[in-house]
Write a structure and sequence with these properties.
Layout lengths: L1 E5 L8 E5 L9 E11 L1 H8 L6 H4 L12 E9 L11 E5 L10 E5 L3 E4 L6 H21 L7 E5 L4 H12 L3 E6 L4 H7 L3 E4 L12 E6 L6 H4 L3 E8 L5 H12 L4 E3 L8 H16 L7 E6 L3 H9 L6 E5 L3
Parallel strand pairs: 8-9, 8-11, 9-10, 11-12, 12-13, 14-15
Antiparallel strand pairs: 1-2, 3-4, 3-6, 3-15, 4-5, 5-7
Helix pairs in contact: 3-4, 3-8
Bound molecules: NADP nicotinamide-adenine-dinucleotide phosphate.
Amino acid sequence: MKAIITTAYGSPEVFKVDNVAKPLPKPNEILIKIHASSVTKADTMMRTGKPYIGRLMLGLRKPKNPIWGTGFAGVIESVGTEVTQFKTGDNVFGENIETMGTYAEYVTVPEDGIVTHLPENMSYDEAAGMCDGGITSLNFLLNLGKMKPGQKVLINGASGSLGTAAVQIAKHFGAIVTGVCSSKNSELEWELGCDEVIDYTKYDFTTNKNSYDLIYDTVGVRSFRECCGALTENGKYISPVLGMRLLGAMMMTSIFGKKKAKFSATGTLSTKETKRLLGILLEIIEAGNLKGVIDRSYPLEQIAEAHLYIDKGHKKGNVVLKAIA
Ligand SMILES: NC(=O)c1ccc[n+]([C@@H]2O[C@H](COP(=O)([O-])OP(=O)(O)OC[C@H]3O[C@@H](n4cnc5c(N)ncnc54)[C@H](OP(=O)(O)O)[C@@H]3O)[C@@H](O)[C@H]2O)c1
């Protein structure tokens, strides 16, 4: 099969197209013919091998998994002898976080891994792109933010992968949602269901005093300190982008004050918890309240172009890779 081999950490030139043996499913695994796989901001950060601490999991000197990529959607080509929940021909989607391998034509996934049936109202592209942003935003809004119906939730970076999922998830759970994006994405935010849209190039949301129960800064460009005044009395600032500022704010707010700053690395959650979140994601999709936003799709061979595009930091929703044209 055709696959993208990751040879080293660095620029997108580290990816090489190659022909490798098609994987064989173990007794507890399913073999999936991939119709779409995700290319994410997290993938581009892993590619650089920075921050270095990430290499403890990915491989110290060079990537230990030759084929990268985690999000996938496709059709089951065969199943292992012990598989009971899936059969050949089923459409599925999910995240292969531990062993990766989705920058390829085929991948094997354990049946008790992060994989589920593809709902009829969602395309392969949407589903593949949706997993990273959807599961991460569920983790942040529900687990960290403890979001409740009627709460005022502000999503900064509302036009990105995490942001487009977060707006729809927060609306599904009955929050009053403000999306922060640039002028070119305002229309998208209204379409996704925002109650208010703020253009960050024209207005600074942190000047709205005592206004939000939850600020979810998906792109990590505003600090807890900057957002503090805009939070309500017991408000929370949550962000998936960890830096020294957020680390300091988390330590400080764990001891002092009613307003809190929080971070989580969603990829380190247990398989059981990630599967639970995938189940919730599925329910929201089946209820018709979550649509995937696809910015661009690239053929498998153009993985370097996909990474270069994401590196610019202005994608709208998700980018997918297509092994099958
Ligand atoms: N901790 C975790 O569990 C976890 C999991 C997954 C991802 N992440 C991290 O989460 C971050 C976000 O990922 P993502 O895939 O959602 O990013 P993304 O899709 O690449 O974000 C791009 C979006 O951010 C918007 N943006 C850029 N600058 C902005 C600003 N100053 N204010 C508001 N919006 C701005 C852009 O809109 P414009 O073009 O209009 O500027 C664009 O639509 C990444 O750093 C990723 O590594 C963390």
